[in-house]
Design a protein that fits this description.
Number of helices of chain B: 4
Oligomer: heterodimer
Shape of chain B: rod-shaped
Structural class of chain B: alpha/beta
Structural class of chain A: alpha/beta
Shape of chain A: globular
Pfam families (chain A): Septin (PF00735)
Helix content of chain A: 25-40%
Largest sheet of chain B: 6 strands, mixed
Protein name (chain A): Septin ring protein
Number of strands of chain B: 9
Strand order of the largest sheet of chain B: 2-3-1-4-5-6
Family (chain A): Belongs to the TRAFAC class TrmE-Era-EngA-EngB-Septin-like GTPase superfamily. Septin GTPase family.
Order of helices and strands of chain B: EHEEEHEHEEEEH
Largest sheet of chain A: 6 strands, mixed
Radius of gyration of chain B: 35 Å
Strand content of chain A: 15-25%
Distance between the termini of chain B: 121 Å
Organism (chain A): Favolaschia claudopus
Radius of gyration of chain A: 22 Å
Number of strands of chain A: 9
InterPro entries (chain A): G_SEPTIN_dom (IPR030379), P-loop_NTPase (IPR027417), Septin (IPR016491)
Distance between the termini of chain A: 51 Å
Chain lengths: ~300, ~280
């Protein structure tokens, strides 16, 4: 353990944080998120609500003669949002048609493959002899998993998919359209879900690592107590008490998306953008990507070792 | 909404079976209880009829081409039991589906499509704030008013009671209270005032049952007649074939006999006529 010394007079290297910030501001940040859940659970609406912008179009069928979507065409939509001089490059990946078919066997395969493909692409670029200074990062930093608000428990398919996904990406489950549940129903639903997640050993973000100090551990605990976030999304505004807020009007009232007593949207939004954005990006690189990378390189080495035998 | 009065109610004591299909059993069961809670004391001939509702939740995994999809079925809701008639067929199926905001899912469409040839399917949409997108053609044609309401948007609650001077059945949200009996909140709200939901449902079910019963008997008559005529024809054909065969056989026999006689004759002729012929 090296002893810390204090310089006799002010040097000024503490400005390195601003230097870094300046560099980063120029470069901008990249954040990639994938939305997984059945059609109609409000995935597109939620991401639009989180970033307060129209980023993604809803992909449902609007006329009866449109055919039911048969394949999950996984596509990324890119946007650049600027806030106070900070440039955020967003990739939003939607998985339309997931879980809608009668036969949903292996519907998670294309999703897992897509996520791994991004790791693979990054690895290839990293291993290139003449590689770019800044490798374009398409790796998925966060997976929002949308749960049907049945009020009972997770469906078997939810359990399977969340388990598979949690092995390759940071999974954040949310209860979609939670305004169909009363507060009591919501609480007991969350309890049941949490029990099932523990029972099936599903490792959700955030993870505790050895490096975390007490404060960080406490923050993670608080997050884990809230997961899954019961959310409501809206791309329309309503007037409540003279203020214009994002909300939904139904037959017996108006749901204010921004009201913490109505739903946990604000908690999710803050979690994703104000407190854990950097951590999501970092853990993707340091945990998920590293795991993928070591497996691949080991496999490569094995392949090389076996070649002399041919 | 004026409803046709039940015609000459001679149906006390017929068993109706309603099957309820849906993912959100709690809501469904609550709704059924909500509806059945009110006894029909208006019509005198029903006053003594016993009402029994029995709901047996059953977890069924539908194996459709190797896939698993959990459906929760509530079986056998018996309205008005009659010990004489034991008709266990399902007369109506209330299919509760979750509103996605877009459309029916493939599974919903597929399920309804497969169920409809066997039973009358009534699609019911859960807890939404607006009606639209009824794409399914309900095969029951009699009641136009009902049809216009399809798919029904319903709320059910038996527990939440809010005293606002008087108890109200409702679901309590932080942003408002959804009242079960308020027609502005639920399509079956306020049924105690105007369309008596029980009457309504029973009318629907009764009509369904009657239609089915009649069409079944007609169909079975026609079918049996057709079967009979087919049988007759076949029997006729068989008989004719049989006769032909017999005739043929006989002919063969005769021919054979002729042949042998001729042989005998020629042999005799060759040996010389008469028994005295000797060398």
């Amino acid at each position: 353990m090296t002893e810390e010394i204090r310089a006799e007079s002010y040097v000024g290297f503490d400005s390195i944080t601003q230097q870094i910030e300046h560099k980063l501001l120029k470069r901008g940040f990249q954040f990639n998120v994938i939305l997984v859940g059945q059609t109609g659970l409000g995935k597109s609406t939620l991401i639009n609500t989180i970033f307060a912008s129209h980023l993604v179009d809803s992909k449902g069928r609007f006329t009866s003669d449109e055919p039911v979507r048969q394949t999950t065409e996984i596509q990324a939509v890119s946007h650049v949002i600027v806030e106070n001089g900070v440039k955020l490059r967003l990739n939003i990946v939607d998985t339309p048609g997931y879980g809608d078919q009668v036969n949903n066997e292996n519907c998670w395969d294309p999703i897992v493959k897509y996520i791994k493909d991004q790791h693979s692409a990054y690895l290839r670029k990293e291993l290139t002899a003449m590689r770019d200074r800044y490798i374009q990062d398409t790796r998925i930093h966060c997976c929002l998993y949308f749960i049907n608000p049945t009020g009972h428990s997770l469906r078997p398919i939810d359990v399977i998919v969340m388990k598979k996904l949690s092995e390759v990406v940071n999974v954040v489950p949310v209860i979609a359209k939670s305004d169909s549940l009363t507060p009591d129903e919501r609480e007991s639903f969350k309890e049941k879900i949490r029990e099932e997640l523990v029972y099936h050993n599903i490792r959700l973000y955030p993870f505790d690592t050895d490096e975390d100090d007490q404060e960080e551990v406490a923050v993670n605990e608080a997050i884990r107590a809230k997961v899954p976030f019961a959310i409501v999304g809206s791309d329309t505004s309503v007037i409540i008490d003279g203020k214009s807020v994002r909300g939904r009007k139904n037959r017996w009232g108006v749901v204010n998306v921004e009201n913490k007593e109505h739903c946990e949207f604000m908690d999710l939004r803050d979690f994703l953008t104000r407190t854990h954005l950097q951590d999501l990006i970092e853990t993707t690189a340091q945990i998920h990507y590293e795991a993928f990378r070591s497996k691949q390189l080991l496999a490569l080495k094995e392949g090389v070792n076996q070649r002399p035998a041919q | 909404m004026p409803l046709p009065k039940r015609r000459g109610n001679k149906v006390k004591g017929v068993q109706f079976t309603v099957m309820v299909v849906g993912l959100y059993l709690q809501i469904i069961v609550t709704w059924i209880w909500t509806c059945m809670a009110h006894k029909d004391v208006d019509t005198p001939d029903n006053a003594h009829a016993e009402e029994r509702v029995r709901i047996k939740p059953v977890n069924v995994e539908l194996e459709e081409e190797g896939a698993n999809y959990d459906d929760i079925l509530a079986e056998q809701s018996r309205i008005k039991r009659n010990p004489r008639f034991r008709d266990n067929r399902v007369h109506a199926l209330l299919y509760f589906y979750r509103a996605t905001g877009h459309h029916l899912r493939e599974i919903d469409i597929e399920l309804m499509r497969r169920l409809s040839p066997r039973v009358n399917v009534i699609p019911v949409r859960e807890d939404i704030d607006h009606h639209d997108i009824p794409i399914y053609n309900f095969p029951y044609d009699r009641n136009m008013e009902l049809r216009a309401l399809l798919p029904f948007a319903v709320i059910g609650s038996e527990e939440e009671i809010d005293v606002n001077g008087e108890p109200v059945r409702a679901r309590i949200y932080p942003w408002g209270i959804a009242e079960v009996d308020n027609p502005e909140h639920s399509d079956f709200g306020g049924y105690s005032h105007l369309p008596d939901l029980k009457m309504l449902t029973e009318d629907v079910l009764y009509e369904t049952y009657r239609t089915e019963k009649l069409s079944r008997s007609v169909h079975s008559d026609i079918r049996s007649l057709r079967a009979q005529s087919v049988r007759l024809k076949r029997e006729q054909q068989l008989r004719r074939d049989e006769e032909k065969r017999e005739i043929n056989e006989k002919r063969q026999e005769l021919l054979a006999k002729e042949e042998s006689l001729r042989n005998l004759e020629s042999r005799l002729a060759a040996q010389g006529l008469g028994p005295e012929a000797s060398y």
